[in-house]
Structure formats: structure tokens, C-alpha cells
Amino acid sequence: FYLSQFYNINKQEKDIQLDFFETNVQNVIRRVHARKSELGFVYISKRSMSAFRQLIKSKGLEYHELTKAPLYLFVGKNSPLYRKKSVNETALKDIKLIQYHEKQFSLYNHLGHIKEDVIYNGENMSISYTNSDSF
Q1: CB proximity list for 95: less than 8 A, separation 6 or greater
Q2: Is 13 a residue whose pLDDT tops 50?
Q3: Is residue 51 in some structural domain?
Q4: This prediction's pTM
């Protein structure tokens, strides 16, 4: 959404080059810090916000919150959760989760707090990590 807004506002500018790619939070921070990217968009949970702010401050970067957004679970058409409007922690018990490879800001670090305040112990959860957006 924000990227398309930025493009629409600036599409008349001749000096704008827009490159888009998806990566994990650490790589966004690394690219902006190394000036390979001028800006980066990230989702940071409430639980990770303190560590995130400390990290970007140590890199001399700034963080500007654009909006608060809930965490979403994306499921495929063949998933038993596909038509559900919401999912509780019991429904997540046997789900297979796939996400970008993250270290510090990984969902894996939040298995006890998946919906920020909902407790889930993740006993039977299977998690796969990828560095590709083609899953």
C-alpha cells in the first residue's frame, strides 16, 4: 500500500528509481544502514519493538510508524482454516508454518504470544524457513 502511494505521488519525477524486493527485517536494516536502500518497510510486533528501536538507534537510523496493523495468518485454499474469519490458538496446534528466515524478529520467538497477548505453547507446530517468496 505505502509503496504504491509513494510511486503514484512521485511517478512524474525523472530522477526516481524504485527497486522492490522482499527480505527479512535484519536485511532491511542492513541495506538501509549501508545506504544500499534509502528506506525500508518492516512489520514489527509489540513484543519486538523495544529491541528493534534499540537496534536502529545503534545504527544511527530513524523509525517512523506508518500504521498499527494486526498480525495476519495467510492460508492456502486447501487449508482447513481457509474460510475462517479468525483462528484461535487451538486451531494452530497442528498447522505447518512457513516464513522468511529471521533471527531476532522471527515469529518463532513469539510462539508463546502469537496474537501479542494470546498464549500458545507451540508444542506440535512445524515451522519451515525460506529465503524465497515462491512458496
Answers
A1: 81, 125, 126
A2: yes
A3: yes
A4: 0.57
Q: Tell me which residue range forms the domain holding 78.
A: 2-130
Q: Does residue 95 form part of some domain?
A: yes
Q: Whole-angstrom distance between the N-terminal and C-terminal Cα of the chain?
A: 22
Q: How high is the pLDDT of residue 56? A: 93
Residue 135 lies in a domain: no
Q: Decide which of 38 and 104 is more confident.
A: 38
- 30-34, 44-48, 106-110 — which one is most confidently predicted on average? 30-34
**CB count, 10 Å around CB of 41?**
12
Give the helix ranges, DSSP H, for the chain: 2-10, 25-33, 46-58
Number of domains in the chain: 1
Q: At what angle do helices 46-58 and 25-33 cross, to 10 degrees?
A: 20
Question: Which amino acid does the sequence have at 3?
Answer: L
